[in-house]
Amino acid sequence: MKIQTKTMISLIFFIVLSAFSTASWHKLGTRTVNYGLDHDKIMVTAKDGAFTALKVDVSGNLNMHKMKVNYANGQSERIPIAYNFRRGRDSRLIDLKGNKRLIRSVDFWYDTKNRSRRRASIRLYGRH
User: What's 108's domain CATH number?
Assistant: First the structure.
């Protein structure tokens, strides 16, 4: 009886783990940032599909002030993402309100004071 219970727990753990690992991340776009205070927009097309969550990856140092997701239906959502990115660090998982949403564009407001003079890049990913 104990062996069956352990097997069942292992099977449930495997199923739950598989459900999380099958999330499909899709690269929505990349922007190379300028120095100082700036604003950039990544356009997303309907062919990219609908998304439940977003994630931001930054190569380099960047201070993100805010982010706004503009949906295909004309609504917008401000995302509180005030975050000081350092090389190799991703944002938290950003769940979108509602279920799957079609995104028209995503706006970013940021500043950078990169002393190495290497421009950072913002990469935006969406999860189906």
Answer: 2.60.120.1380
Q: How far apart are CA 113 and CA 122, in angstroms?
A: 15
For residues 8 and 29, give the distance between their C-alpha atoms in angstroms, rounded to a whole number: 42
For residue 18, is it within any domain? no
Q: With beta carbons less than 8 A apart as the criterion, state whether 99 and 87 touch.
A: no
The answer to whether 114 touches 34, Cβ cutoff 8 Å, is no
Residue at token pair 């938290």: 92
Helix (H, G, I), strand (E, B) or coil at 112: strand
pLDDT tens readout for residues 3-23: 566 565 555 554 544 444 446
pTM: 0.75
Helix (H), strand (E) counts: the chain: 1, 10
Tokens, residue 3: 């062996």
Model confidence over 39-51: pLDDT tens digits?
999 999 878 889 9
Q: Is residue 44 part of a domain?
A: yes
Residue 114, domain member (yes or no): yes
